[in-house]
Design a protein that fits this description.
- The chain is α/β, with parallel strands linked by helices and 290 residues long.
- The protein contains eleven helices and nine strands.
- The chain has helices at residues 15-24, 56-63, 80-93, 114-128, 144-147, 169-181, 202-213, 224-230, 238-252, 262-267, 274-280, and strands at residues 4-8, 28-32, 45-47, 68-71, 98-104, 132-138, 154-157, 190-194, 218-221.
- The protein has a seven-stranded parallel sheet, sandwiched between helices.
- Helix 7 packs parallel to helix 11.
- The radius of gyration is 19 Å and the shape is globular.
């Protein structure tokens, strides 16, 4: 029997891409999600019983017989660390031998970006379980850059002149698949920063968006107070708004500026930059068209 790789979030942008790459490599893959009807139908991929991270019994059933778990981080919530720990505990109980976890760059207990703190606590729990592990610390996704830009053509936030080494979903998936398909132990206990090929300011991002859209896109540097005020109308809870604002502040203080060569080292191809991404994904900036 071929080793089974369990993929969580298989209906999402990262997990789905990874599942397709594993299927293309003829790997025995088990797809895990809350709603089995949303899981892709792929050769060699078998849907597991429906499972949510916070449901330990369901996760245990879904993971029985799997050797490796690809753990995509849960959607942000006040209980995210608890949900992650429940999923990891179930994996260990099911006999999973290795966990490859999608973390975030700069994960630390005192990270400026509050959501990055969740990733640090999750990493620490995985380490404490004694299971083989690899952490993929993704930078901000390139798709977030046009998404953060308003229909008015303004990219606003308290990011100062800091730089961000944003990365494409496809490069993350390629790197993850390379780690998952490697039968050696050379990735054990390794932390990879998964980044794009260069770090850029949001002002530079606005220039690139202007070039591809044909309209003037600008970067407006907000103060912290302005940032909270401009996002108050979304109806989000305070913890979520804090996460949004501190993501920009993390850029400002340099916590997303590190550029890594992990993508080319793991995949054999260069990482995609912002201009290439925008050229390849016009749907990401269609809301900005004049």
């Amino acid at each position: 029997m071929a080793p089974v790789i369990a993929v969580t979030g298989a209906s999402g942008r990262v997990g789905g891409r990874v599942a397709r790459r594993l299927s293309g490599a003829d790997a025995a893959t088990r797809l895990i999600g809350r709603d089995p009807t949303r899981l892709p139908e792929l050769p060699g991929a078998v849907p597991a019983h429906p499972a949510e991270y916070g449901d330990g019994e369901a996760m245990l059933r879904a993971l029985e017989g799997a050797q490796t778990l690809f753990l995509v981080s849960a959607h942000e919530s006040p209980d995210r660390v608890k949900e992650h720990c429940t999923a990891v505990e179930a994996a260990v109980a099911a006999g999973v031998e290795r966990i490859v976890y999608v973390s975030f760059t700069g994960a630390a207990p005192d990270a400026t970006f509050t959501f990055a703190r969740d990733h640090w606590h999750t990493e620490q729990y995985i380490r404490s379980c004694g299971v083989r592990h690899t952490f993929l610390r993704d930078n901000l996704y390139l798709g977030a850059i046009p998404a953060m830009t308003g229909a008015d053509g303004v990219l606003r936030g308290p990011a100062g002149q800091g730089r961000v080494a944003a990365v494409a979903h496809d490069d993350v998936a390629d790197a993850a698949a390379a780690v998952l398909l490697d039968g050696t132990r050379r990735h054990d206990r390794v932390v990879y920063d998964i980044t794009g090929p260069a770090a850029f300011t949001l002002a530079e991002a606005a220039e690139d968006l202007s070039e591809v859209t044909g309209r003037s896109v600008t970067y407006h540097l907000e103060s912290r107070e302005e940032a909270y005020a401009s996002r108050a109308g979304y109806g989000a809870e305070e913890w979520e708004v804090t996460g949004w604002v501190t993501s920009y502040e993390a850029i400002a203080v340099g916590e997303m500026a590190t550029v890594s060569d992990a993508v080319p080292r793991l995949t054999g191809h260069p990482a995609q930059g912002l201009r290439d991404y925008l050229a390849a994904h016009p749907s990401s900036w269609r809301h900005l068209l004049p």
